């Protein structure tokens, strides 16, 4: 199947016709399905091109190429300068528009029609080369926006990324043609490992040092520069209004904020229950030397819908904080001198159930490894002064006169993150986090162990833990082989589901361990 490389939005290929994915007798049908799927992707690309015509992108239109088709052409207009403030704002708009395009592509790939006999696991594996590539490009754009890369650095890294992913994908396709199953999987895993190596190198947080030699312009007849696709009307992306009454103002529009749409088992309204939902994404604006958390807004909005639809929390009883500062977190949760913060005042004694969600950075302090939640105005080198102690959060929540308190954390405390290190120039020994006592009154569900990284999805849309937690609570964890199908997701069922799905995804996509931790009433759930 002919392929085009438009890593920002267009698929490498729709792998319904990948050798080994289906019986040979289904090939003609597979070709028809693949052609229809490719046409759908072309329509999505055309709509995305139309959205990129906005005047808000004019400051960067001649410095970056929004659709990279490989080769040297993408370097021609690149400069060795870093973005100006006006250009960084334009890059933020690009990030937001691109996120919508990537979301549409990913949703389509997740549900694309397949011919009879096609193996969806094989198709999804091949499509993951695209989605992981899109995520890596997104991280490069974020580095450009933060001024960590020059335009030339960005162009060179993206071109190198395209070549590397293309090579790894071709190795995978060749592997799919190997008749022997064991050998096929062995070679395919090596191709997948090659892809992970390319992604890790291309999206490193360290600034690049490329020397760019502009290539001679290609002729207008070059086959690598096809005419632009015909524009199609831009289809709106679904986004529910934020009904919560305490949303933080002035959130950064550069970060995606499209909630994960799932159908939850509906519970009874609980007018006395309270939720606090925090999504800390934009660290670059106020913090010092701390990378952004791209999916945190998405995670917070998704968890808000979960609190309303599954837990029955009234929108007026949700404290939604995006980019919470240290002062705002102390105002809500209290501090070591006074646990009576805003949340305490919202609790009906003996009647309220409290749900707390945090997506953002966690990190160990440099003085002994005390774990902290990291506000968006923290100083990475002075977390002991500017972070919010995790132990303090647990202690203050245990003081609430609530019936039940549940804490869900999509954060890690290893000092590392998918966006780069939180504590620069510190050794792994220095970063070893201390364990924290969890009061028996609390149920805590965390994205991983203290020394593990809380991964993002390959497309950067949601935290890996948040996505699988919500899918599990929407009913997936209640179905066999993880659950008993009684319509209720227990903590044990959730744990089994996360171990089988999230932990596997982290290992497969990133080659690292991430095992969710659940503690309830002082006991570890495993």
Report what the structure shows:
This protein has 13 helices and 10 strands. The chain has 526 residues and is of the alpha/beta class. The strands form 2 sheets. It has a 7-stranded mixed sheet with strand order 2-1-3-7-8-9-10, with helices on both faces. Strands 4-5-6 form a 3-stranded antiparallel sheet. A hairpin with a 2-residue loop joins β9 and β10. α1 (27-51) runs antiparallel to α2 and α2 (85-111) runs antiparallel to α3 (120-145). The longest helix is centred in the N-terminal third of the chain and has 27 residues, at 85-111. The model is unreliable at 1-26, 69-77, 205-249 and 423-430 (pLDDT under 50).
Outline:
This protein has helices at residues 27-51, 85-111, 120-145, 151-176, 181-202, 296-309, 326-333, 342-346, 383-386, 390-398, 464-473, 491-500, 502-510, and strands at residues 274-279, 318-322, 353-359, 362-364, 371-373, 388-389, 404-410, 442-446, 517-520, 523-524. The protein has 526 residues and is of the alpha/beta class. The strands form two sheets. A seven-stranded mixed β-sheet has the order 2-1-3-7-8-9-10, sandwiched between helices. A three-stranded antiparallel β-sheet has the order 4-5-6.
């Amino acid at each position: 199947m002919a392929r085009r490389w438009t890593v920002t939005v267009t698929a490498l290929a729709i792998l319904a016709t990948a050798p080994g994915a289906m019986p040979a007798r289904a090939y003609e049908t597979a070709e028809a399905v693949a052609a229809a799927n490719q046409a759908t992707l072309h329509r999505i690309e055309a709509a995305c091109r139309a959205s990129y015509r906005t005047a808000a992108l004019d400051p960067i239109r001649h410095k970056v190429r929004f659709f990279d088709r490989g080769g040297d052409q993408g370097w021609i207009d690149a400069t060795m300068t870093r973005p100006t403030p006006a250009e960084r704002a334009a890059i933020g708009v690009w990030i937001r528009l691109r996120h919508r395009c990537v979301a549409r592509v990913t949703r389509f790939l997740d549900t694309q029609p397949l011919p009879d006999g096609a193996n969806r696991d094989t198709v999804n594996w091949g499509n993951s080369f695209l989605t992981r590539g899109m995520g890596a490009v997104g991280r490069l754009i974020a580095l450009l926006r933060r001024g960590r890369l020059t335009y030339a650095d960005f162009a060179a890294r993206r071109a190198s990324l395209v070549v590397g992913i293309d090579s790894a994908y071709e190795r995978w396709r060749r592997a799919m043609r190997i008749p022997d199953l064991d050998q096929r999987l062995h070679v395919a895993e090596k191709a997948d490992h090659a892809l992970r190596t390319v992604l890790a190198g291309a999206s490193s947080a360290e600034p690049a040092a490329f020397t760019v030699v502009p290539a001679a312009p290609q002729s207008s007849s070059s086959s690598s520069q096809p005419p632009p696709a015909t524009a199609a009307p831009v289809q709106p992306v679904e986004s529910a209004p934020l009904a919560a009454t305490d949303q933080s103002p002035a959130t950064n529009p550069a970060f995606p904020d499209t909630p994960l749409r799932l159908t939850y088992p509906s519970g009874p309204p609980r007018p006395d229950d309270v939720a606090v939902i925090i999504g800390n994404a934009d660290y670059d604006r106020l913090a010092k030397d701390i990378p952004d958390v791209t999916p945190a807004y998405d995670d917070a909005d998704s968890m808000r819908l979960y609190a309303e639809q599954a837990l029955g929390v009234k929108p007026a009883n949700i404290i939604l904080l995006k980019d919470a500062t240290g002062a705002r977190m102390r105002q809500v949760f209290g501090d070591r001198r006074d646990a009576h913060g805003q949340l305490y005042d919202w609790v009906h004694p003996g009647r309220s159930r409290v749900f707390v969600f945090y997506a953002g950075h966690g990190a160990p302090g440099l003085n002994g490894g005390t774990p902290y939640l990291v506000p968006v105005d923290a100083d990475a080198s002075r977390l002991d002064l500017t972070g919010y102690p995790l132990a303090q959060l647990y202690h203050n929540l245990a003081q609430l006169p609530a019936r039940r308190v549940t804490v869900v954390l999509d954060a890690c405390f290893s000092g590392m993150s998918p966006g780069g290190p939180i504590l620069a120039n510190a050794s792994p020994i220095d970063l070893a986090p201390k364990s924290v006592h969890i009061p028996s009154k609390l149920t805590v569900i965390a994205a991983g162990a203290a020394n593990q990284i809380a991964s993002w999805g390959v497309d950067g849309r949601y935290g890996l833990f948040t996505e699988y937690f919500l899918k599990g609570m929407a009913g997936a964890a209640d179905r066999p082989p993880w659950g008993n199908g009684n319509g209720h997701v227990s903590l044990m069922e959730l744990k089994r589901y996360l171990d089988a799905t999230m932990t596997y995804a982290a290992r497969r996509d990133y080659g690292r361990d991430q095992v969710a931790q659940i503690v309830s009433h002082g006991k570890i759930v495993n």
